[in-house]
Amino acid sequence: MKTQTLNSQNAIELNRIEMIDFYNEATEDYEFWSNDYNMHFGYFIPFKTNLFKRDTMLNQMNAQVIKRLHIGTDKNRLIDLGCGMGGTMRYALKKHTNIMAYGVTLSNFQTKEGNKLLEGKNGIIITDNYNNTSFKNNSFNSAVAIESLCHSGHNNIALKEAYRILKPGGRLVIADAFLKKDTSQLCHGAKYAYQKLCSHWSLEKLETPTFIKNQLEAIGFQDIKLEDISYRVAPSVLHVPFAITSFILKKLLTFKTLKRESFHNLKGSFFALLSGLNFKSFGYYLISATKK
């Protein structure tokens, strides 16, 4: 049993190191995906977002997440758990002048470059682990996690940490891809796409939204709501093959070689497309909850 525990801990640490390397080296690729450095998929609303302008959908995802935080007019301290380059933070600061935004990331590159983009704004990114942050208890009114908790396998450690640093009445909103069934129930094609997705994007694993709901309840969250928004997200996922093709052509035309991390990123994006089109096995959810 002790050996199994050590092996599990070693696997988690190895995944963490791989993830840091991945984002330190491949983050600049995301400028090609989003001018605003939104490192996530989008939310499509007919006649409000543009199918052919990806950033309108990506920023609408930011809008939908921020909307579910129920931010009022009082001073609000917001934390982005796995903030990337701070795209969601900058969107929130633009929409709400009463926010002080904090972001945590394991990537020194994202901390350095993200803070440049936040210069002059009421926000800051620090290099920290969302599973074990340096913040005091009851520090924040709001917390978001957009496509970040999957990197640590949707574990309850991150959820417990979010609960710890949120103030009573504080809101948590998660936007992420999840499995709709246990991995043992996936067909061969879905299982293959899932394994490749985890490998290329340094994801420990994906859980089901029901698992997250049960964990949130056990920790002490209330008013938990699960929203399957897969069909809203699908249009932005369909941008993947075109973005990959354009990115590779740009590199070839400028005689630049693809970095190993960029290659993994592109392959991961391809398997994200394959997974995202399998609505029976995979889904994209917005999960919101309130700390008691």
Can you characterise this structure?
This protein is an alpha/beta fold. The chain has one domain (2-291): Rossmann fold (3-Layer(aba) Sandwich), CATH 3.40.50. The protein has helices spanning 2-26, 30-33, 54-67, 87-95, 108-117, 156-165, 188-200, 209-219, 230-237, 240-253, 260-276, and strands spanning 76-81, 99-105, 123-127, 140-146, 166-179, 221-228, 282-291. It has a seven-stranded mixed beta sheet with strand order 3-2-1-4-5-7-6, sandwiched between helices. Helix 7 (188-200) packs antiparallel against helix 11. Residues 2-12 have low confidence and may be disordered.
How many domains, as an integer?
A: 1
Strand order of the largest sheet: 3-2-1-4-5-7-6
Architecture per CATH nomenclature, i.e. the level-2 architecture: 3-Layer(aba) Sandwich
- Classified by CATH, the class is Alpha Beta
Query: Roughly what is the average pLDDT, rounded to an integer?
Result: 90
Structural class of the helices, strands and pairings?
A: alpha/beta
- The share of residues in extended strands comes to 15-25%
The helicity comes to 40-55%
Number of strands: 7
Topology pattern, helix = H, strand = E: HHHEHEHEEHEHHEHHHE
| CATH fold category name | Rossmann fold
